[in-house]
Amino acid sequence: MNEVAPVAFTAASYKSDYKPIWCPGCGDFTVLSAITKAFAILQLQPHQVGVVSGIGCSSRIPAYTSCYGFHGVHGRALAAGTGLKVARPDLTVLVAGGDGDGFSIGGNHFMHACRRNVDMTYIVMDNHVYGMTKGQASPTTEPDWDNKLSPGGTGIRAFHPLVIALASGANFVARAFSGDPNGTAEIIAQGIRHPGFSFIEVLSPCVTFRPEQREWKSVVHPPPVEPTDDPARAARRIMTDDGFNIGVLYAGSRNPYPHYRSGKPKYTVEDLETEFEL
Ligand SMILES: Cc1ncc(C[n+]2csc(CCOP(=O)(O)OP(=O)(O)O)c2C)c(N)n1
Ligand code: SF4
Fold it and tell me: Which residue puts its alpha carbon closest to atom 8 of ligand 2?
């Protein structure tokens, strides 16, 4: 009997039939490509992947993939992703969203997801603005960004997501740029492979409300940035760079959330039902 050759997945295997409705030129198009390329690098079965998001332009990602998807509520993507991974540790869980979603309304969840170190990957398409709700300043907006919603700028220091991730316990911290989909795909694949909570900030221009971000392509510093497993070295590097160093900035060796060490949840639903029986 002839053996059936295993199916080789390409990036196209992970794309749904829905056409993205992002503005022409939005960085999120290439982040979507990078995510599907990363899945193809790892040859993941589409039905073995869960893509979870919150709300925002960037959070539309799950609908554009052929994997299982959950488009949740604003700022709660990591809670939903954590629940999914706890219930189904066999799945690859990728959580995606924007800087408003992840660092403002979702900021508390961000810190605690880093701390819990559940084995999943979190991608934030950082455009330093709330795109979907028409250009308000976000936690990563520069304090002097002058626009009609915050004349003269907010005057508030920008949040530093990579430092917060490192300090809170994320096991893999990286920065990528949407203008380099192949490099971004490699970093995402490394993040998925790395045990524990992987955080990847992808600089992804909002060409509509921050057209000046088109210039990012001339200011990013492409790799190599040597990954380090020394948090002190990583912290110094991240604190002192100009925000445009691309690459894996930290790859640690902290054990993921213990329930996954065996590849199985510690408690079954039946155990929990028995425990909570009245
Ligand atoms: C609880 C709640 N608060 C506010 C909103 C409105 N809202 C929807 S998307 C969004 C901002 C999204 O910005 P960001 O996460 O940076 O994503 P982008 O659109 O830039 O990709 C806001 C404030 C909402 N949907 N739900
Ligand atoms: S508003 Fe900005 S973030 Fe949203 S789709 Fe348009 S360019 Fe992209």
Answer: 26
3-state secondary structure of 235: helix
The count of domains in the chain is: 1
Q: Is the CB of 138 under 6 A from ligand 1?
A: yes
Task: Please indicate, yes or no, if residue 16 is contained in any of the structural domains.
Answer: no
Does residue 50 contact residue 102 with C-beta atoms inside 8 Å? no
| Nearest atom in ligand 1 to 74's CA | 26
Model confidence over 148-195: pLDDT tens digits? 999 999 999 999 999 999 999 999 999 999 999 999 999 999 999 999
Does residue 222 form part of some domain?
yes
Q: Which ligand is nearest to the CA of 105?
A: 1
- Answer whether the bond into residue 224 is a cis peptide, omega within 30°: yes
Report pLDDT digits (tens) over 4-42.
777 799 999 999 999 999 999 999 999 999 999 999 999
Give the pair of three-digit tokens for residue 112: 């605690």
Q: How far is the CA of 204 from the centre of ligand 2 (A)?
A: 9
Is residue 1, in this structure, part of any structural domain at all?
Answer: no
Q: Is the CB of 29 under 6 A from ligand 2?
A: no
> Is this prediction's pTM over 0.85?
yes
How many CB atoms neighbour CB 213 within 10 A?
Answer: 19
Span from the CA of 55 to the centroid of ligand 1 (angstroms): 5
The answer to whether residue 7 sits within a structural domain is no
In terms of residue numbers, what domain contains 241? 22-275
Q: What is the domain-level CATH number for residue 225?
A: 3.40.50.970
